[in-house]
Amino acid sequence: MGIVKKLLVTAAVATALMANVAHAENKKIALVVKALGIGFFDAANKGAQEAAKELGDVDIIYTGPTTTTAEGQIEVINSLIAQKVDAIAVSANDADALVPALKKAMDRGIKVISFDSGVAKDGRMLHLNPSSNPLIGNMIIKLAADNLPEGGEVAVLSATATSTNQNTWIAEMNKVLPNYKGVTVVDTVYGDDLADKSYRETQGLIQKYPNLKAIIAPTSVGIVAAAQAVTDAGKVGQINVTGLGLPSEMAGHVKSGASKSFAIWNPIDLGYSAAMLANDLIGGAEAKPGAELKMGRMGTLKLDENNEGAMSDPFVYDAKNVEEFAKIF
Q: Which long-range contacts (CB under 8 A, 24 or more apart) does 292-297 make?
């Protein structure tokens, strides 16, 4: 083999080795969601992948259990610890049950944050709220009350009974409920973020409360199921379904009149921000009260005394804009 050819071969081998080393050194950030197959979290994964592409040296592992259980998430987390990932960003099915597994992860040097649905303080370094909890709580009851000028009976369809974010938003909603004269919350039921159970729970509410005027579902799975149940029961125009949902999943129900309006932050932005925050922690940023951490194009996250911060305000979707946003997420 000639000298020039040898040099070319050597250079090619060296380049390949360097590429393999660079790939091997990519930071691994796991996005652990409540359950796979939920549109909201699929959109969040798109945002996380966008962040990884922008950063260039990050691989996103999108994972979660098949059902919305703490046990399923613990299994996933233990697997990620064994894989020696660099960071875990989790939307929790249970605030307390995940703490021991996540503490073990942090003891192994893994950076842990929660997003969307929080983990108790001992089980994470910071929590990313998609919006301010008081703003969300006020928004979900306001969406119902705006279409009830004379008041009326309202029910809540939540996710799991242990879902941190759902319970916080409902508590904040109840704080401001006296501001909405004549509006009465008659019941709260749980669909466990399962479409079929959420549908059945809505049917139960319709049968139990013949004067029901609105159903608030602060969950993207529940709001779609509730809107379908109201439609199937022939109650469109009598019961308004509102809460938090995805434009792509709710556009048809807005068009049919089953839902007058609903709200959500952009889940793509949420996944993007979670990945960026995890990367900042891997890079040496410290999560402490008052700290400001980087969220790329979303700006910075300022942490409060509980190491929590809010990404952005919720946005309202109705017949005027839902079709436009349905093309995006």
A: 293/126, 296/51, 296/54, 296/272, 297/272
What pLDDT tens digit does each residue of the chain (329 aa) get?
A: 555 444 433 444 444 444 444 456 899 999 999 999 999 999 999 999 999 999 999 999 999 999 999 999 999 999 999 999 999 999 999 999 999 999 999 999 999 999 999 999 999 999 999 999 999 999 999 999 999 999 999 999 999 999 999 999 999 999 999 999 999 999 999 999 999 999 999 999 999 999 999 999 999 999 999 999 999 999 999 999 999 999 999 999 999 999 999 999 999 999 999 999 999 999 999 999 999 999 999 999 999 999 999 998 899 999 999 999 999 89
Q: What is the residue-wise DSSP string for 21-58?
A: HHHHT-EEEEEE-SSTT-HHHHHHHHHHHHHHHHHSSE
**What is the Rg, in whole angstroms, of the alpha carbon atoms belonging to the chain?**
22
> Which two tokens mark 258?
């089953």
Which SS3 state, helix, strand or coil, does residue 198 take?
helix
Q: Give CA–CA dist 223/195, Å, rounded.
A: 9
**CA 12 distance to own-chain centroid:** 44
Quick check: pTM over 0.90?
Answer: no
Q: How far apart are CA 255 and CA 170, in angstroms?
A: 27
Distance CA 69, CA 61 (A): 19
Mark residue 307 as left, alpha or beta (left: phi above 0; alpha: psi -120 to 50; beta: remaining). left
